[in-house]
Amino acid sequence: MNIIEAGLYSALSNDSDITDAVGGEHIFNSVAPQGQARPYIIYVFTGGGHENINPSELINMSYMVKAVADDGTEAGDIDALIQAALHKQTLTVTGYTNFYTHREEEMQLVETAGDGTLIHHHGAQYRIRIDD
């Protein structure tokens, strides 16, 4: 887990509304464990890196953060909690200053599990910028 991912996890796992909604710290980087009960939250790095426009360590990263649930309304409600915890909020990123965390492109999708169960995903891309 890198320092931005640690900041994301901390912001989400320290929010009692989120942990209540997902039944604990069911917040995972990239993929949930096999057999994980829903609902849960996934965050995954989707791109970015050093901007290299000045001598500082300006970093610009994008993460997909989404709720995964058996019901679309529940996924949407959890996504709203994620938005409240992250959008225009300051993450704690060791050794850096987080000066920009914004919700950008939103997503929703429904997948069908092997047993025919519908699994709902609601979330968004979050642009996170840090500097030293």
SSE inventory with pairings:
Layout: H1 3-13, H2 16-22, E1 27-29, E2 40-50, E3 59-69, H3 72-86, E4 97-112, E5 118-131
Parallel strand pairs: 1-2
Antiparallel strand pairs: 2-3, 3-5, 4-5
Protein described:
The chain is of the alpha+beta class. The chain has helices at 3-13, 16-22, 72-86, and strands at residues 27-29, 40-50, 59-69, 97-112, 118-131. It has one domain (3-131): STM4215-like. The protein is built from 3 helices and 5 strands. Strands 1-2-3-5-4 form a 5-stranded mixed beta sheet. A hairpin with an 8-residue loop joins strand 2 and strand 3.
Highlighted features:
about 130 residues, alpha+beta, STM4215-like, five-stranded mixed beta sheet, 3 helices, 5 strands, about 40% strand
Structural class computed from helices and strand pairing: alpha+beta
* Secondary structure: number of strands: 5
What's the structural domain tally? 1
* Named CATH topology: STM4215-like
Series of H and E elements: HHEEEHEE
The parts where pLDDT drops under 50 for at least 5 residues are none
Distance between the termini: 19 Å
Cα gyration radius (Å): 15 Å
Secondary structure: helix percent = 25-40%
Dominant shape: elongated
- In quaternary terms, these chains amount to single chain
CATH architecture: 2-Layer Sandwich
Question: What proportion strand?
Answer: 35-45%
SS field, number of helical segments? 3
Main sheet properties:
5 strands, mixed
The top level CATH class name: Alpha Beta
